[in-house]
Design goal:
homodimer, 297 residues, alpha+beta, 6-stranded mixed β-sheet, globular
């Protein structure tokens, strides 16, 4: 996992000065704005051949670049504000390709109330797009990756394992994150960009806890070995994984079953760090859930 | 000039809501922070084969990515605050390559007092780096591209035409921009990333004015046809081009000639829009200075 190794290296190099509250290691960087508000910053880069195909229509490239950043902002319980878009594309693609990318990005920005305020276009041998996004959240509503405590319940929104089909058309869970941040005390949250195994390990590592996830509780479209494997390892679902105390969890579960309820499922629990991150199989035996999945390095 | 065509398209699509003061079309986007401060946002993407070579040492890639953004912030009279770095590189390059890029970026960040608070790493067939940077400036000190007025004098800092040699090692003119913003009323400013011809046309277009630049006044290391051509068209100098009223210009010129003086040269004047953007040759005749130079599309 060279990406994790690199992040460790990078983290060691940084000394944040006030008012930086959180830097590398969460969905967004967090900066205090004084009074009761935090400002959030996040950036995600999508590259041809890695995050989309050579023949992916440009509209969906722009849309995805915007939505993955909205998902990062949502994962901290915040609302997006501004975005800057940098695009690199081959000279051969022409202006209609660039327009397609920006139309897709602007459509998503409009839907989720993001103000696109700048950007940059470049010639590039492969298509690459970077969106940087800011957000804001009331201090009391900020949710990080590092607040999970032993005894908490673990939930995910929606259905997992569909990233392969939906990674260009998914809906970032901004609405759900807002409901969670405003109505419940959520201990920790992360968006599932690289698969449950990778992102649960990230959340556990940042919170210095262990976790147990029950294979039979993982929400999939249709039950099969293959779909469970995809749910755990395949990534690009952009659903939310979150933890809450047993007391809050009872309220959350009530809300799930109610009308206009939250589309979420209980999948496991938070344990002590020494327990590690484990997957409990249908027969009750368990195995280590290694942070395997989509790694860029 | 497809990039300009695209920027026009994109500008037409945007409706800014308060507190966005400036969006696409300047070095940075500008957002009011209330009280007396503007927040600035800018992003620049560098791509292998376009902005650096396949064999450019990674340290200099990271350094350049940071410095071009600092230059954009400086061009508005502001100070940089935070940066987010997104990097894409081949899996084959390994972790030492990524470390080299981040070491270069962090060295520049430290030197110019920028706080790197986040980022993203990805696999990519070619090396690509995007830095997004925020800055801040007192409202009264903000300098845009659009404030040049007929009769203003035009200046550039430093020496032009050296971009080819210095684009990996240049010093962003943050100190000079600070001196200008705090001590003089500067009507308009832009950093010279794409060459004098391109960037002067941008400044003139945003200010709705014309301009005359005197070929014999353009500061070059050693006078030759070739070096003057490079100064006008070659780009990547990252010096500052700025305009000031005749009254302010007298003060600026005094400061240039004084001890610890500003390293800047008077190169021409601002005219009415109908005059167009012109280059006055050594024999007194003049020609249109077309926005030719480094265009990515």
């Amino acid at each position: 996992l060279k990406e994790l190794e690199f992040i460790k290296y990078i983290k060691g190099k940084f000394r944040y000065r006030k008012p930086v509250v959180k830097g590398i290691g969460d969905d967004c960087a967090v900066v205090s704005r004084g009074k009761g508000t935090y400002g959030l910053f996040t950036a995600d880069m999508l590259i041809e051949g890695i995050h989309f195909k050579k023949n992916t229509p440009p509209f969906f490239i722009g849309r995805k670049a915007m939505c993955v950043n909205i998902s990062d902002i949502a994962a901290m319980g915040a609302k997006p504000e501004y975005a800057l878009i940098s695009v690199g594309a081959s000279r051969k693609k022409g202006i209609s390709y660039l327009k397609g990318i920006s139309d897709g990005a602007l459509a998503a920005a409009k839907k989720f109330n993001v103000s696109v305020i700048g950007g940059d276009t470049n010639a590039s041998p492969v298509t690459v797009i970077n969106v940087m996004m800011t957000g804001s959240v009331e201090k009391k509503n900020l949710i990080t990756r590092s607040g999970a405590r032993k005894g908490d319940c673990l939930f995910v929104t929606g259905v997992l394992g569909e990233g392969n089909k939906r990674h260009l058309t998914f809906t970032p869970r901004l609405r759900e994150a807002g409901i969670l941040a405003r109505n419940f005390r959520i201990s920790a949250m992360i968006d599932l960009s690289d698969g449950l195994s990778m992102d649960l390990n990230r959340l556990a590592s940042e919170s210095r806890v262990g976790a147990r996830v029950y294979r039979s509780l993982i929400p999939v479209r249709e039950y099969s070995e293959r779909s469970i494997e995809n749910a755990i390892y395949a990534g690009e679902d952009f659903e939310l994984l979150f933890a809450a105390s047993p007391r809050e969890s009872r309220k959350i579960i009530k809300s799930i079953s109610g009308k206009n309820g939250l589309n979420a499922s209980l999948i496991g629990e938070v344990t002590g760090k020494s327990g590690g991150v484990r997957l409990v199989k249908e027969d009750g035996s368990s195995e280590e859930l290694k942070p395997r999945g989509y790694s860029h390095f």
